[in-house]
C-alpha cells in the first residue's frame, strides 16, 4: 500500500471534523444523520464500489443545496482521494480508473496497462480468482473507460471493440449501454466478425435489452445492453424504455449475491462527468440524484447483509464547478429543480433559425430568457452548451473549464473495515484496502510501478 495508507491513522482526528464542516462545505443547517456503520475488522464477503464520475466536493455541496437536505453520502464521509495520473497532475477517467482498479498509476488514456505496456491485474480479476462473482454497471457504454479498467487491458481507451470480449470473460453481470461493441459489422456493430452476444449466451448469460426484460430476468449471469451507444441522461430517461441506475444496481446485487463466495460489484454514475464537460448543471444534479438512489440501495443491502463494504469515490473533478459565482455572494441551485431536459435535448427541439429558442427554454426550465441571453446563445456555435451556461448563471453555478481539474475528491465508505479509508489517500490505496478487507491476494504483480506513487 502507499505511504498515505500507512500514515492514515495519524490523520484521523485532524482531518475528520474539517472535512465534514469545511472541506465539503456542509452547512450546519442540514442535520446529517450518522450512518450506523460496522467498523469492525472482520472479513468482508462483498464489495460494492461506486464511482460518481467527475464528482468533487463542489458537486457534493451543490447537490446538497439542490436536494434541500443532507445526502446519503454525507453520513459516509471518511476522507479524501488524490487523483493525479502518472504523466499529469490532471487525470482522465482511464488513468484514474486504472489507479482505483489496480493500485497503480498509469498514463492518461491507458486501460489497466502500465506505461511500459505491462498488463496490470485488477481488483475485480483478483476477486474472480478467489471464486467471487463479479459485476459492472454504468450509464455510459459498458465498454467505457471506468467499467473497462476493472475488466480489460488495452493501450487506449478508445478501443472499445477490444474491451468488450474481455468483459464477457471477466464479469458475471454487465449492465449499461454499448450494444454496438458486442455485435459484428454485418449486424451494424463494431466487431469485425464476432457476435459477442451469441458467445455470451453460450457462456450462460441471460441477455436483456430494456427495463421490463431486466426486471424479470433470472439466472446467475446477466448481460443487459440498453442502448446502441450510451444510455440516456437521467433527465431524458423517461423518453426511453431504459432502466435507471438504481434498478440496474438492485438487479446486479440480486444476481451476484447468489454466489456463496461473495461478490465484487462496480457501479458508475457515468454521466455526472458528461454533464460537467457540457456545463449542464441540471443534468449533473439529476444524475447525482440518480446515483444517490443507487447508493441508498447498496446501503440497504449492506445493512441487511452485515458482511458488505460499500465504497464511494469520484475519479476526478470535471468542469471546475463552483458553489456561487458571477460576482455575487449567493447560490441559487434551486433554479435547477425546474429544469426537465438537458441542454442537448433542448437544442434538438429548436427550429433551424432558432426562432423558438425562448419558447423551448421556457418549456423545459420555466425561465424567461432576456434579450441579452438570447443573443448570447445565438452567438455561440454550440447551442446546447450556450443554453447550459445561461442556466448555470441563473443558478449561480460557476465553471472554470470544459475539461477535468486536479483537485482532491471526497471518499465515502460504509460497512466492515470502512475505517480503513479514513484520511487523505492516494487513489491507488483504494483497491489495496478493499483487497485486504476481502482477504483477496492482490497487488504483488503491480509493485514494479510503485515508483510513480512514491515520486509524488
UniProtKB/TrEMBL annotation:
<keyword id="KW-0597">Phosphoprotein</keyword>
<feature type="binding site">
    <location>
        <position position="316"/>
    </location>
    <ligand>
        <name>Zn(2+)</name>
    </ligand>
</feature>
<dbReference type="GO" id="GO:0046872">
    <property type="term" value="F:metal ion binding"/>
</dbReference>
<dbReference type="InterPro" id="IPR018299">
    <property type="entry name" value="Alkaline_phosphatase_AS"/>
</dbReference>
<feature type="binding site">
    <location>
        <position position="268"/>
    </location>
    <ligand>
        <name>Mg(2+)</name>
    </ligand>
</feature>
<feature type="binding site">
    <location>
        <position position="277"/>
    </location>
    <ligand>
        <name>Zn(2+)</name>
    </ligand>
</feature>
<feature type="binding site">
    <location>
        <position position="315"/>
    </location>
    <ligand>
        <name>Zn(2+)</name>
    </ligand>
</feature>
<keyword id="KW-0479">Metal-binding</keyword>
<dbReference type="InterPro" id="IPR001952">
    <property type="entry name" value="Alkaline_phosphatase"/>
</dbReference>
<feature type="binding site">
    <location>
        <position position="53"/>
    </location>
    <ligand>
        <name>Mg(2+)</name>
    </ligand>
</feature>
<keyword id="KW-0460">Magnesium</keyword>
<keyword id="KW-0378">Hydrolase</keyword>
<dbReference type="GO" id="GO:0004035">
    <property type="term" value="F:alkaline phosphatase activity"/>
</dbReference>
<protein>
    <submittedName>
        <fullName>Alkaline phosphatase</fullName>
    </submittedName>
</protein>
<feature type="binding site">
    <location>
        <position position="273"/>
    </location>
    <ligand>
        <name>Zn(2+)</name>
    </ligand>
</feature>
<dbReference type="Pfam" id="PF00245">
    <property type="entry name" value="Alk_phosphatase"/>
</dbReference>
<feature type="binding site">
    <location>
        <position position="144"/>
    </location>
    <ligand>
        <name>Mg(2+)</name>
    </ligand>
</feature>
<feature type="binding site">
    <location>
        <position position="146"/>
    </location>
    <ligand>
        <name>Mg(2+)</name>
    </ligand>
</feature>
<dbReference type="InterPro" id="IPR017850">
    <property type="entry name" value="Alkaline_phosphatase_core_sf"/>
</dbReference>
<feature type="active site" description="Phosphoserine intermediate">
    <location>
        <position position="93"/>
    </location>
</feature>
<feature type="binding site">
    <location>
        <position position="404"/>
    </location>
    <ligand>
        <name>Zn(2+)</name>
    </ligand>
</feature>
<keyword id="KW-0862">Zinc</keyword>
<comment type="similarity">
    <text>Belongs to the alkaline phosphatase family.</text>
</comment>
<feature type="binding site">
    <location>
        <position position="53"/>
    </location>
    <ligand>
        <name>Zn(2+)</name>
    </ligand>
</feature>
Amino acid at each position: 500500500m502507499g505511504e498515505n495508507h500507512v500514515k492514515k491513522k495519524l490523520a484521523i482526528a485532524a482531518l475528520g471534523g474539517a472535512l465534514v464542516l469545511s472541506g465539503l462545505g456542509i452547512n450546519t443547517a442540514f442535520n446529517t444523520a450518522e450512518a450506523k456503520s460496522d467498523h469492525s475488522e472482520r472479513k468482508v464477503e462483498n464489495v460494492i464500489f461506486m464511482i460518481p464520475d467527475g464528482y468533487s466536493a463542489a458537486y457534493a455541496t451543490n447537490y446538497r443545496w439542490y436536494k434541500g437536505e443532507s445526502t446519503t453520502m454525507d453520513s459516509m464521509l471518511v476522507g479524501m482521494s488524490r487523483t493525479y495520473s502518472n504523466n499529469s497532475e490532471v487525470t482522465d477517467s482511464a488513468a484514474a480508473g486504472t489507479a482505483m482498479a489496480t493500485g497503480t498509476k498509469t498514463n492518461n488514456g491507458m486501460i489497466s496497462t502500465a506505461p511500459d505496456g505491462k498488463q496490470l491485474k485488477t481488483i475485480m480479476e483478483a476477486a474472480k480468482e478467489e471464486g467471487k462473482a463479479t459485476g459492472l454497471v454504468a450509464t455510459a457504454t459498458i465498454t467505457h473507460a471506468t467499467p473497462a479498467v476493472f475488466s480489460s487491458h488495452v493501450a487506449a481507451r478508445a478501443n472499445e471493440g477490444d474491451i468488450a470480449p474481455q468483459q464477457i470473460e471477466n464479469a458475471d453481470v454487465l449492465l449499461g449501454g454499448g450494444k454496438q461493441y458486442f455485435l459484428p459489422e454485418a449486424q451494424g456493430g463494431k466487431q469485425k466478425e464476432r457476435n459477442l452476444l451469441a458467445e455470451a449466451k453460450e457462456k450462460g448469460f441471460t441477455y436483456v435489452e430494456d427495463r421490463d426484460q431486466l426486471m424479470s430476468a433470472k439466472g446467475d449471469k446477466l448481460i443487459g445492453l440498453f442502448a446502441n451507444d450510451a444510455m440516456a441522461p437521467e433527465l431524458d430517461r423517461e423518453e426511453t424504455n431504459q432502466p435507471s441506475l438504481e434498478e440496474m444496481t438492485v438487479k446486479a446485487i440480486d444476481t451476484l449475491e447468489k454466489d456463496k463466495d461473495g461478490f465484487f460489484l462496480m457501479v458508475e454514475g457515468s454521466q455526472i462527468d458528461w454533464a460537467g464537460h457540457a456545463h449542464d448543471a441540471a443534468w449533473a444534479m439529476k444524475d447525482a440524484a440518480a446515483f444517490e438512489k443507487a447508493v441508498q440501495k447498496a446501503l440497504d443491502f449492506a445493512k441487511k447483509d452485515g458482511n458488505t463494504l460499500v465504497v464511494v469515490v469520484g475519479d476526478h473533478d470535471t468542469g471546475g464547478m463552483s458553489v456561487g459565482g458571477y460576482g455575487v455572494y449567493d447560490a441559487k441551485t434551486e433554479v435547477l429543480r425546474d429544469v426537465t431536459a438537458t441542454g442537448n435535448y433542448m437544442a434538438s427541439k429548436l427550429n433551424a433559425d432558432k426562432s423558438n429558442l425562448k419558447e423551448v427554454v421556457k418549456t423545459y426550465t420555466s425561465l424567461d430568457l432576456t434579450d441579452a441571453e438570447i443573443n448570447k446563445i445565438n452567438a455561440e456555435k454550440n447551442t446546447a452548451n450556450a443554453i447550459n451556461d445561461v442556466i448555470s448563471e441563473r443558478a449561480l453555478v460557476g465553471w472554470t473549464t470544459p475539461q477535468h481539474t486536479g483537485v482532491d475528491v471526497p471518499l465515502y465508505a460504509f460497512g466492515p473495515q470502512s475505517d480503513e479509508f479514513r484520511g487523505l489517500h492516494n487513489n491507488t490505496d483504494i483497491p489495496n484496502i478493499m483487497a485486504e478487507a476481502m482477504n483477496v491476494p492482490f497487488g504483488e504483480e503491480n509493485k514494479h510501478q510503485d515508483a510513480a506513487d512514491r515520486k509524488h
